[in-house]
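ping. complex inputs:
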Amino acid sequence: VPPNYVNMGLQTAKTRQKMFRHLMDQRKWPQEGWDDQTIEILVNEIASMDSNNFISKGGVGEREGRIYSNIVSRRHFGMAHGMGRSGDLAEAQPKAAGSSLLCTLTNALVLDLMHTFVCGKVVDAMVVPMATGMTISLCLQTMKEARPNAKWVIWLRIDQKSCLKAIQSAGLSPIVVEPKLVETSLVTDLEMIDSVIKERGTESILCVISTTSCFAPRDCDDVGGVAQLLKNTPIFHLVNNAYGIQSLACVRAIDRGCRMGRMDIVVMSTDKNLMVPVGGAIVAGYSKEIISQIQKSYPGRASSSQSLDVFITMLSMGVKGYKALITKRAENFLYLQLKLKSICMAHKLQMLLSKNNDLSTAISLGDLTRAVGVTEAEMPTFFTKLGSLLFFRNVQGARVIIPSQTQTIGQVELEGWGCHSPLYKLPYLTAASTLGMEKADVDFFIKKLDECLKMLKKPRTD
Amino acid sequence: VPPNYVNMGLQTAKTRQKMFRHLMDQRKWPQEGWDDQTIEILVNEIASMDSNNFISKGGVGEREGRIYSNIVSRRHFGMAHGMGRSGDLAEAQPKAAGSSLLCTLTNALVLDLMHTFVCGKVVDAMVVPMATGMTISLCLQTMKEARPNAKWVIWLRIDQKSCLKAIQSAGLSPIVVEPKLVETSLVTDLEMIDSVIKERGTESILCVISTTSCFAPRDCDDVGGVAQLLKNTPIFHLVNNAYGIQSLACVRAIDRGCRMGRMDIVVMSTDKNLMVPVGGAIVAGYSKEIISQIQKSYPGRASSSQSLDVFITMLSMGVKGYKALITKRAENFLYLQLKLKSICMAHKLQMLLSKNNDLSTAISLGDLTRAVGVTEAEMPTFFTKLGSLLFFRNVQGARVIIPSQTQTIGQVELEGWGCHSPLYKLPYLTAASTLGMEKADVDFFIKKLDECLKMLKKPRTD
Amino acid sequence: VPPNYVNMGLQTAKTRQKMFRHLMDQRKWPQEGWDDQTIEILVNEIASMDSNNFISKGGVGEREGRIYSNIVSRRHFGMAHGMGRSGDLAEAQPKAAGSSLLCTLTNALVLDLMHTFVCGKVVDAMVVPMATGMTISLCLQTMKEARPNAKWVIWLRIDQKSCLKAIQSAGLSPIVVEPKLVETSLVTDLEMIDSVIKERGTESILCVISTTSCFAPRDCDDVGGVAQLLKNTPIFHLVNNAYGIQSLACVRAIDRGCRMGRMDIVVMSTDKNLMVPVGGAIVAGYSKEIISQIQKSYPGRASSSQSLDVFITMLSMGVKGYKALITKRAENFLYLQLKLKSICMAHKLQMLLSKNNDLSTAISLGDLTRAVGVTEAEMPTFFTKLGSLLFFRNVQGARVIIPSQTQTIGQVELEGWGCHSPLYKLPYLTAASTLGMEKADVDFFIKKLDECLKMLKKPRTD
Amino acid sequence: VPPNYVNMGLQTAKTRQKMFRHLMDQRKWPQEGWDDQTIEILVNEIASMDSNNFISKGGVGEREGRIYSNIVSRRHFGMAHGMGRSGDLAEAQPKAAGSSLLCTLTNALVLDLMHTFVCGKVVDAMVVPMATGMTISLCLQTMKEARPNAKWVIWLRIDQKSCLKAIQSAGLSPIVVEPKLVETSLVTDLEMIDSVIKERGTESILCVISTTSCFAPRDCDDVGGVAQLLKNTPIFHLVNNAYGIQSLACVRAIDRGCRMGRMDIVVMSTDKNLMVPVGGAIVAGYSKEIISQIQKSYPGRASSSQSLDVFITMLSMGVKGYKALITKRAENFLYLQLKLKSICMAHKLQMLLSKNNDLSTAISLGDLTRAVGVTEAEMPTFFTKLGSLLFFRNVQGARVIIPSQTQTIGQVELEGWGCHSPLYKLPYLTAASTLGMEKADVDFFIKKLDECLKMLKKPRTD
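pong. complex structure:
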């Protein structure tokens, strides 16, 4: 093979090596996404730094990273040693330089993601190989070690079990602060938080958990207002920004928080924000210490599989690719609202507008009940049927909410479960536009929703 | 294509379908291992039951299982929804029948593994997508919910940080019970446990954690003795059987526990026992309720990646394959001891025999110090050098232990760190034989150890 | 897992099974492209029908389809038996019902491709696992068996070695018919063909090979005119439609051929028309017999790897996807011409327009020579440098053609090699727009071409 | 990540790079097999040298190596350009330095395979991406170009269609030389070859094709004797060593050929000798020129998929791994013979011993006919049934041969088709032991054969 051809070929190898070195040195999210072959070469090179992939070796320990199944080995590029050591999630492993490097780089990328898309004041960030619920629990445990006498966590109600259970599983007690109803939106009740703090005393309250991303008609919490209340108190402020990186409303709320008061930790889902399978969370901290404390309080080693997914995905997207996804999502949200408006027109229903929720939207189904002549007693069955009709037509993620349900989680009883508030008395339907959604999803949903509404409105022949 | 050829071909498809149905119906670990193609077909069929893999659909929720990267999607066979729901790790997901089925089947296989290889009295078992440390913490939290007034955990000392940190991260306080030195082995001090219980009172003690698999010269704990002490007390008994499935000594200890007294939970590592990457644990319970409580106390959803690894690996091994691995491991342990004996003869060192440890063995390095003329002050440097020489020769897992070190973890100070006891005054080296080890590993280790010992014994020329 | 969730999941499995059955029954190219998971499930199911993938078996033959390497096995989905039997490429293999089915289905898809995109009168078609050159050779050998006394093949000159070598390797002798120069295009010289036939006699001429897709300024051959000349003669007509499926001009020429006279075989490249790796060709025949004869005259078995690539790719594209690719290609051709025009304006060069070539376009570089003051003797070096400058800037596929070169292939001497004709006296550059090209390719090319032209025009400082 | 850990990790990367460089420089088959990860890293690095994998590029040619389907791209590691250029199969491609390098290296490995396992006097060798039949045809065409007046090919009869069809498809005429019956073996009739040559004259005879590997009771041809006859004649000698690399008998015959007379080309199957899928052949030449001529006479480009399979497989095996396979095969052949002897004892049948065939063995079924009372007229049906019974029990590769069948291939009529000779009058069954066979295959076969023979011997109840 003539040397000039080979040189041309090797130039690409050199370009790749430059990209790799740049990533190692700069630890920044590349602007342009990388192609799959480049990513696989890098991951394989990293993996080959783990001792179980060494060519000549002898293992006489209790965990030598031997993988039995070929299929499993391939899934993990031969990496077997996971993340961290028994003392610290962030500690490098002598046996697994590659896995250690992978996790370190992923955390660097995630920090850059925070700076570029969420908040420039974040100081450190990491991928935790547990979903948001368990991760919030870990954060709360770490906080508790710092303030062992504070037993209460103020929880701004959002009707999703994980967060409340996270508080309980951390051995803490929640104080539920219900949202206020302003027009058709449910918004943060700052006065109530303030009065709870005053009543119980700052020393007894460990943390306030506010939530940004949520289903309409609940609004993104007033993170700024909460942060301001916590200024100069010892109370931690944890923001559950579950799928909020993609939302301008959520990101703005966090930004206001930084400017106005106390912010400690923001927790985000990797699957919902980065389009990877469920299983990881991003923890972003406003001090190096708090992230380091979390890493140290985690007992033992952990999976690096979630970091691998995030690493591959972020390199594949690049900053530009991610921006494009966010833009498309915002467009699809407008398109979804537009289409729902036309459904509302056709079926004489009402949109439930939320000022501060650009992810999810809702339509009231109250008029439908009246139109069809469903009694209050029949309502649950009637709306369960609507949900079921949609589900069996492969519409996913649309939720039909029936008011006046009650749910008990641990010791806490929540009235109006599903609506985030007992004040919400209307049955309604929510739908969201999130990363990766296509216009075709909206069209499919709207078509099926129209069909289902027509079916429901047919006079009953029984 | 002639129909008789096609029929021959379809027969295999039918055989596979029969194997699949048998697995679904019986939920037992197949005797014979499956080939990779069969496993991949099954996993793909299961994955295609998840809604994100449906061909016609519309997703308007906040988590639609969209995977951005092709590489990531392929790693997970397109499964994105993880395990469980916000209320319960064991709950099936409406959007993800496939992932739910996968996790359910994996738990059934793991229960069968328990029955076949560990203990027939186990009632329920599951794969938790966190490594043993964090899993033990989760178990303790669940126990604490049942007995909120019990604050203490009796921990039978083993010098590995995870378990101790797990106790602390569950918000509990450890009581360290040191082992007794009997000849050269460190064994369970039942009298001390008994006196601690009497002193503090059963009501204040939540749990005793005993450990089976460990490094020599520590022995497998006397699980039976501990279980007997806890009989008729409210104190939970959790056995940390980290990598003990492969060890007859550990399995027998657990079996004695069942016969003699109280057993609640056994925790095991998936990576060390099943040759998958780090990141999961098996929790086996002696009642349905305790497993169910753990599943319910886990906040939120979790990764199904660990279950997938276990599922694939167990089908690939089959019961017979696993038996063969265990037999080979036991043979290699004898081979390792034999070879170490010859090293001891050659270098005039002593084996440190443990009666009840068939995983790990140790040799005293005390005579080496004397032979070379190393002072007590020089000892740490001298033995650190031995560890380092071995490490840089790609010997993995052999540990050189220097006595009289102290380590503080949380509030707990442990003297003689590394030796599991302040009573152990000899420097020593440990090596283990675990699943998947080859004779070549032993040969490599012995050759390099011999080299390193010779280097160390050379008269210093400086 | 609740049965209604499972049923939802199984619905997709059923949908897939319906798609598979539809494909088997109808043997038509699906309108909509299939997703990768669906394709892989089908290919795995087909592969599992091959006897080497049977679960229980005993092989005592000389070829049992055993694959040594895991990587290789995976590349082929475990299929090892290739295509055909020693007697016939189209024959089904008793040991390999799956592979046989795969090849049969692929041929059916390819026939449908012919009907939908090339010519409705094609009667049979197949994928031959050799590239176009060797495939044309095979076709000619088959024809020769039918007419053993005919020794000559009339070859409408196109400056690419394969076709000419194919004639020679089939043991036949070419008669080169040069194209005519009409304005700036090179077009078929029908009169010359006619006079050659008359001179040598129809009995001595085996075949005429016309070529559709080619580089400008050569035009697509007048297939209709040639077909008309061959009407009522025993002379076979083979059309080399190498990458012409994507071109309206080529397809129209073939269609005219069918209406006006004799057509026997059309040969096409799989890589250039279907975006798969090099290695296969499509042979389309205007009678069942001729395809069957080709299959029978092929000695021995052959690789099914090319059929697998085509099968996967066609299912992935669907008819709609392929239409979209063709439309985009046509748009990019216009865009390429537009951009080249602007380059010509800027550098005072001339476009060389071809009436009947919608794949490739050319610009004359004659004026450049004059502008820079390059003598005729310096021309080859000068233009070689242009080619080389482009090549080392990663511009691929642009060719710089220098007139008055001579090339001897076998016994045949071709003057003006590279230009398809000794009549073409201008140096020129060609570029093409083919399937899968992106606008970015055009932009990259134009930018680099501009740079290179500027460099060449710089006054020489030596 | 601490630098000393990283350095340890990079050491493996360096080891790999050394292995790669050693392979490039030495071009020898490594003694030790490589692990899959190492192989994949190398193949990916090679693939990334192809221009279609460049990160920044613009393609304006007709073949830019664009691959549509992700699945297809992955199968080929992104390599799309195949092998060779229109002028020469061995020529490097400017656009595809990687693919060119891959093919060059593979040919070097294959040459080393020849030297190590077949014959030290081979001068050049290559992988041809066509199975043996078509490859023999290509060799004959190339020979014919050198000696256009020689029309005849002497073919030492073996009853397998490919080789005979290869002669015909090369436009040549076969002279069939039947084997002699010596005891129960069919052996080369040297006198007949000699008299044919004398009769027709050396000038008119292009080539003699001898065959080594074959089914008993045909023996490996006397390659030495044939070579001696051809010494000092212009007649080429092509040895069809289809699956003979694994056989000591075949290799010895070739070696004798080299020492005793004229040898030109040896053709071997890649699938049968190297356990890859069907589709390639190895051509080994006793002069540089003949291999070079074959490469030059091949019209156009070709698939590199077969070379890739061979490359991966040979690296995976290493010389040692291949030796082990060959040893195991020889052992299994003895085991097969042993087991067949016991079947013969049990069913009162005769072994048909061949002196010079260590691949395949046969047993006479004549006594069976007598035992069951089958008339000559019923024989075909009776033995077809035996074949079919075995086939439907998943016994593959065992052949039941019925004497006195006739087959016409092209112009040639062969009496006693299947037996390699009209002299063989006994029905018989053959079985072989080839690379990759397991003892379990033999056991399965013997068990099923025993069953089938018992079934056949049951008194008919109809």
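Residues 305-347 of chain B form the longest helix (43 residues).
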